[in-house]
Protein: gamma-glutamyl-gamma-aminobutyrate hydrolase
Organism: Rugamonas rubra
Amino acid sequence: MPSPIVLVPACINQIGSHPYHTAQLKYVDAVASGAHCMPLIVPALGAATDLEALLDIAAGIMLTGSPSNVHAGLYGQDVLDPSLPQDPARDATTLPLIRAALKRGLPLLAICRGFQEVNVALGGTLHQAVHAVAGMHDHRENKHHTLEQQYAAAHRVLLEADGALSRILGGAGEIMVNSLHGQGIATLAPGLAVEARAGDGLVEAYRVADAAGFTLAVQWHPEWQLAQNPDSIKLFLAFGQACRNYQSKSGRGA
Ligand SMILES: N[C@@H](CCC(=O)NCCCC(=O)O)C(=O)O
């Protein structure tokens, strides 16, 4: 069977004098080495994206993290801190792509910003600054720390008993995760089912309840040093297997 193609939507980033379509290496490599699939970086072309052409060749989609925020206008709010990075071209590409991919039953794995944008794509809202909400913890990384420290395990999450994530992780009730986000889920979109929460109650993982295939979105970073984290290995293996199953069922597996 040819390797299943997993779409990895790009960000737009300024490098020197020019804007680039970019995808961070750790995400792209995790699709290859963790899910054993072929990553395909999708440019952030917005409305010019041919969604059906992409979905005709894809067997999965992975939404990456990124320092930028999903634009608050997309969930009916004003941007509270305009100094934080935005990526309207990524928003204009991923939101329609997410909806079209789910309609086809494509396996989906979403991480950090990706976790937030799937929620917004399906009608949910975000806290623009989780740490400013009474009773919530500060989920941000300390930018003065080394990368190793920033991506180290930061807090535990409690997994839903008998949930999809818990099953993938061998029946675990809780796991330790890293934490590098200022925003978080305020209202979960209709049709999403909670899979894990942090100690302050913040949703840390969910699935699309009535999806035809595998869907999991996590607020943490399983792609970070994937090979050293048994939970992350299991998560990416399960995603990869779902992509292989989708490819076989769609008749493209020969
Ligand atoms: N802007 C959002 C998204 C946070 C996020 O995805 N952080 C990861 C950035 C670096 C990486 O990709 O590893 C927020 O702050 O909530």
